[in-house]
Amino acid sequence: MSVQTLREPTDSHGDSTRQRSDDGPLEVSFRAMGCQTHVVIHGGRPEMLVRAEAQIRLFESLWSRFVATSDITIANGTPGQAVSVHEDTLAVVARAIAGWRQTDGLFDITVLPGLLAHGYTHSTATSQPAPPVIGTRIGASQGIALDYGDSTLTVPVDSALDLGGIGKGFAADVIAEDLMADGAHGVLVNIGGDLVVLGQPAGGLSWHLGVEDPTKATRHMTCLRIGSGGVATSGTTIRNWTTANGELAHHLINPLTARPSQAGLSTVTVIAGDAATAEVFATAAMMLAGDQAMAMLERNGLDGLAVGDDGRVHRTTTLRQFEA
């Protein structure tokens, strides 16, 4: 399941596609960070799309575990040693550590050894193998060290990092904020279903976003009306595979069990003040049963919905305030 604008350009070949009607917004659609990306700018200039795409591709080059020269790959390859990294890498890892604390450990970026152990060894976008890692322990976020003075990252000696979803959510937040600072009236940035909207779309006060039904991609479960903020979906319907011993596995590793989550949920969509927060809690909610997931969201002042493996839909009690 993903979250989509209700009108979106398509790109079946992975190249950037740009469009603009005479009185409509600027838009670009392309593949990056292993997924489809969509940027919409109201009241902007064409060069803003070019810069937004370049920045997203830069983030991918810094944070992807499938890029041999990325900050994350280099740091994973030398656990226990301080590695010089980009300031944006420090920022996204710091946000991930905060997410670990916010969710009492249900969200954790040190799950990479578990992903590899269960067969997620190649990129789903390019089939490129990920560089090997030394660490084998997950649930080690408390051991990540950041040094802002020297701009270094130290991965715990027995673990490895995967920025996965939070990299997409954090990137969407940064790009949207930069576009608004550059003079846009309203922006939408959607990186693989981690989405943020800021400002206002032309001709309206809010953005209308469709939440895709995980059982039928052409159908929307609901339509959300968002003034500003982030929406993210986490689920098992896309990145899943059959292991060598015939078991069905997916990419959402429970930090408490070191195995793919078996909580009984197919997807969770979360609405928050920003996309990174929405991603943190969508991932954490996937580790819980539906009712428990919704209770966690409500305790943290968030809204959302979950779809169980049995098709049952769980909603926070105040989600209806966002439904169009």
List descriptors.
324 residues; alpha+beta; T-fold; nine-stranded antiparallel beta sheet; 7 helices; 19 strands; globular
The gist of it:
The protein has 324 residues and is of the alpha+beta class. 27% of the residues lie in helices and 29% in strands.
Detailed description of the structure:
- The protein has two domains: 3-61 and 185-322, ApbE-like domains (T-fold, Roll); 65-165, T-fold (Orthogonal Bundle), CATH 1.10.3980.
- 27% of the residues lie in helices and 29% in strands.
- It contains seven helices and 19 strands.
- It has helices spanning 46-63, 71-77, 87-102, 112-117, 164-181, 275-285, 290-299; strands at 3-5, 17-19, 26-32, 35-42, 83-84, 145-147, 152-154, 186-191, 194-199, 207-213, 216-226, 229-235, 240-242, 248-250, 253-254, 259-260, 265-272, 303-308, 313-315.
- The strands form five sheets. The protein has a nine-stranded antiparallel beta sheet, covered by helices on one side.
- Residues 6-13 have low confidence and may be disordered.
List the helices and strands and how they pair.
Layout: E1 3-5, E2 17-19, E3 26-32, E4 35-42, H1 46-63, H2 71-77, E5 83-84, H3 87-102, H4 112-117, E6 145-147, E7 152-154, H5 164-181, E8 186-191, E9 194-199, E10 207-213, E11 216-226, E12 229-235, E13 240-242, E14 248-250, E15 253-254, E16 259-260, E17 265-272, H6 275-285, H7 290-299, E18 303-308, E19 313-315
Helix pairs in contact: 1-5, 3-6, 5-6
Major sheet size, sense and barrel closure: 9 strands, antiparallel
- Helical content stands at 25-40%
Give the CATH topology of the largest domain: T-fold
CATH architecture type of the largest domain: Roll
The average pLDDT value, as a whole number, equals 89
What is the CATH homology-level superfamily of the largest domain?
ApbE-like domains
In terms of DSSP E residues, the strand content is 25-35%
CATH top level assignment of the largest domain:
Alpha Beta
Task: Give the count of structural domains.
Answer: 2
What is the subunit arrangement here?
single chain
Total number of helices: 7
Question: How do the strands line up in the largest sheet?
Answer: 2-3-4-8-9-12-17-18-19
Low-confidence stretches: 6-13
Number of strands: 19
| Backbone CA Rg | 19 Å
Terminal CA distance reads 19 Å
The coarse overall form would be globular
Order of helices and strands: EEEEHHEHHEEHEEEEEEEEEEHHEE
Broad structural category: alpha+beta
